[in-house]
Amino acid sequence: MKYIKANNVLPEDMIKAIQEYVDGEFLYIPRKNENQKAWGEKNGIKDILKNRNHEIFQKHKEGITMKELAAMYFLSEQSVRRIISERKRACS
């Protein structure tokens, strides 16, 4: 997250009003609801994980064991089991 100086974007009277509540501290102002982004949407991690999970499922269908997949992808066997289970449900 990048910080923006309030002096550069807010009117002086608004800064003074905010200083009555928060003086010299960092303040996070959340996005408007209509501008919210889903988790992983901004940096692409959601798509990366979707592709990884698809690969895991395909390799499992080709006969690679959950233990081997866990080692290949640095995941626990339980995570691999969950990924495979979710993909099976999605394909049904």
What fraction strand? under 5%
What is the rounded Rg?
Answer: 23 Å
- Structural class, please? mainly alpha
In one word, what is the shape?
elongated
Report on the biggest sheet. Answer: none
Distance between the termini: 40 Å
**Number of DSSP-assigned strands:** 0
User: H/E series, N to C?
Assistant: HHHHH
Average pLDDT across residues?
90
How many domains make up the 3D coordinates? Answer: 1
Contiguous uncertain segments of 5+ residues: none
Helix content: 55-70%
Total DSSP helices? 5
Structure write-up:
It is a single chain. The protein is mostly helical and 92 residues long. Helices cover 57% and strands 0% of the residues. The protein has 5 helices and no strands. It has helices at 6-9, 12-19, 45-61, 66-73, 77-91.
Write the layout of secondary structure elements.
Elements: H1 6-9, H2 12-19, H3 45-61, H4 66-73, H5 77-91
Helix pairs in contact: 3-5, 4-5
Protein name: Mor transcription activator domain-containing protein
Pfam families: Mor
Domain Mor transcription activator: 13-89
Tags for this entry?
single chain; 92 residues; mainly alpha; 0% strand; elongated
Question: Could you provide a short overview of the structure?
Answer:
With 92 residues, the protein is mainly alpha-helical. It is built from 5 helices and no strands.
